[in-house]
Hints:
Chain A has 466 residues and is an alpha/beta fold. Helix content of chain A is 31%, strand content 17%. Chain A is globular.
Amino acid sequence: xxxxxxxxxxxxxxxxxxxxDSGDALLYIDRHLIHDLHHRAFATLKANGQTIRRxxxxxxxxxxxxxxxxxxxxxxxxxxxxxxxxGLEAAAKEMGFNHFDLTDDRHGIVHVVGPEQGITLPxxxxxxxxxxxxxxxxxxxxxxxxxxxxxQHVLATQTLWQRRxxxxxxxxDGALGPSVTAKDLALLTIxxxxxxxxxxxxxxxxxxxxxxxxxxxxxxxxxMTIEAGARSGIIAxxxxxxxxxxxxxxxxxxxxxxxxxAYWKTLFSDTDASFDHEVLIDATTLEPRVTWGNSPQYSGSxxxxxxxxxxxxxLIKRSEMEAALTYMGLQAGMAISDIKVDKVFIGSxxxxxxxxxxxxxxxxKGRQAVVPTLVVPGSGLxxxxxxxxxxxxxxxxxxxxxxxxxxxxxxxxxxxTLAPEERSASTSNRNFRGRQGKGSRTHLVSPAMAAGAAIMxxxxxxxxxx
Amino acid sequence: xQPFSSVxxxxxxxxxxxxxxxxxxPARFLRRAKDDPKYATFLLHDLRFNSDGSETDFIYNRTxxxxxxxVVADINWGCGSSRETAVNALVANQIRAVVAPSFGxxxxxxxxxxxxxPVRLPTTSCxxxxxxxxxxxxxxxxxxxxxxxxxxxxxxxxxxxxxVFDRMRLLEGLDDISITQQHAKTIESFxxxxxxxxxxxxxx
Lengths: 466, 204
Ligand code: SF4
């Protein structure tokens, strides 16, 4: 018998080109995704006299700098925004890697596009210069964000130096209640293990709740794994995963498909595999959640009141909570449902897939938004699908704005921002200070909760809708 | 990249737990080139500058802290976005080392790859160091990578551990690509076997 391994270890081992005595491994990289903010990588590569080792394994798409009103390059205001997008496009043409430009329906947020195109597949090692690369682990691959220097390394060598992370298993059991989503599960998980709890770990999610989640829901959960400090989250592929990747443009076909499936069936943690840390979460009592602080670890259920920092025994946490309440303009003890919002953002790599838009539309249908609301699909194909289903009409009839795909107000560098002290209900992943514009105040919620806030003008228990 | 052996300098205490890379450099500066003459001002920009461009009284703006080359931070320094520009902003301000109880994993790697030494010390040690740096503005401390130790302003010695490969990278100022290129043949042969066995990865 060979030593029992975790799912992560199985995939990792298969990609080890060589290992140093120190335990650092040189890993082979199967897929490299790149977005506009890294367009300068190619000039640097050239200046260093290097070339892209495997351009066929590199995929680019513009997302961060794309105004959600732009359909082509010339719609982007001249200056650094347009240069960033056109820079990536020009590099793709010159150096011959895959690229989905603005006029191509396949473009969109890099973490929506990868799975949608079948670029992301079980058993691979996938990297991207973006921390939310953890998203792709939902399909049963090792996927993690890297920095600009590491991008250069992958471009030049198709490999990356990695230390073996510790393994953590988060087992989540129980059926989710009505209107409770993967987003709420992600916020609960981060609250349980803290924003730093996953540092140094690769997290595997298991349990009946995970198996019951759709593949899209699993992506939402793995997406936010980085907010718990872990670079990657992974979920063992099952029949849902395989059905999801089948017949996608870049997924294997024919004999290749059968070979891949045979390998994918071996991808699970062995029964006796040992984890360095185990966490058990009961999802049955989970309710829709809302964050109130400047770290995703600070969230509560919609029926809760804001905690009083004075009751927090941990002094670091206490001062962080006090600072957050001040920055956010909130008072200890106030009801979460009394928090009024100025703007609503539905989008981002966390929650801009078709399932998310359907959930938001179900709340918006036949109701009027009372605050400005931006709905931004994750990709051109999600946008098309939503339009086929008439979701765009529902949003527009509610007075919400239906926009072009991109990161938009998740990172707020494309022209969509909050003004100082403006407050949002946002389906994105970070409520950091200034994340949605200098002085902005962000509350993270699920798409249905965001739509509910748009209708009421404050946070509300969407379970009472209907 | 600049090799790192040891540094003795003024330390600046930054008492912000979970200080994410959005704080270290706000997203609106992400498209700026590394040689932008204003790069140094991007570091902790929104904590350091008011909307009208005037300086706040944030500790790094104050003399003598603004001459520091060592940051002593709180838990989870550099969590969040993978932006390596956060390290570029540290480098633009000649920050050579950051001491913290824990770091965001990606930021930690980015530091190593740019010659900035990230030092993990226990929370109590970091608390103590920050307290001393507040009490005696301009107090100097030493970080020695050869001996793997931090010497506080009161001469207390704090040993630290670091991955041997990371230590070598910093001591020698080695960049990863040149290390990896020494293994070109091994990569070549791995790739050809891996390709044969996993044709579906390359040729779907
Ligand atoms: S949607 Fe937000 S989190 Fe996702 S890749 Fe874009 S900026 Fe990053």
